[in-house]
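REQUEST FORM: STRUCTURE PREDICTION
Request ID: SP-0412
Submitted by: Lab K.M.
Chain count: 1
Length (residues): 143
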Amino acid sequence: SGGRRGPPMPVPTRCHLGRFPSVATGLSEVETAALAVLQQRGPHAFADLFREVTAQPAVRHHGMGDLQFAACVRGLGPLVSAAPGELARAQLDITGLGRDVVAGERDRLAIQPIDTWLGGVHLRGDRPRWRWDGARGRLVAAR
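STATUS: Completed
RESULT:
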């Protein structure tokens, strides 16, 4: 009311909410950061991508290890290409679909529906009930 904001959000809460799909792209903050690195800097080996993404201030507080990051990258499916073989040794790159999602031209969940739990919230399908609006700093009900 009156444009006032409440007290600052605790970092752990903010990180948890950043794992929800974005209202703009359907990507989480970590997924967004990974695709942005691949789009801006080209193909990366998994270990290099992990170091670069998790060093970013918006991602560092997630406290993500390499196994969690690997699961995140695997979950990006058609948005990221990887040379055949073990992910830890793979060269990763963004696909055309990934570029479309980053640009906001396509919604990731329309390409690859979600089925995951975040805390006590089950997100599933191409139109989950909740999405993260990072610009406004709040979780919003999907329309």
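NOTES: Helices lie at 11-17, 29-41, 46-54, 57-60, 66-75, 96-102, 108-111.
Reviewed by: T.R.
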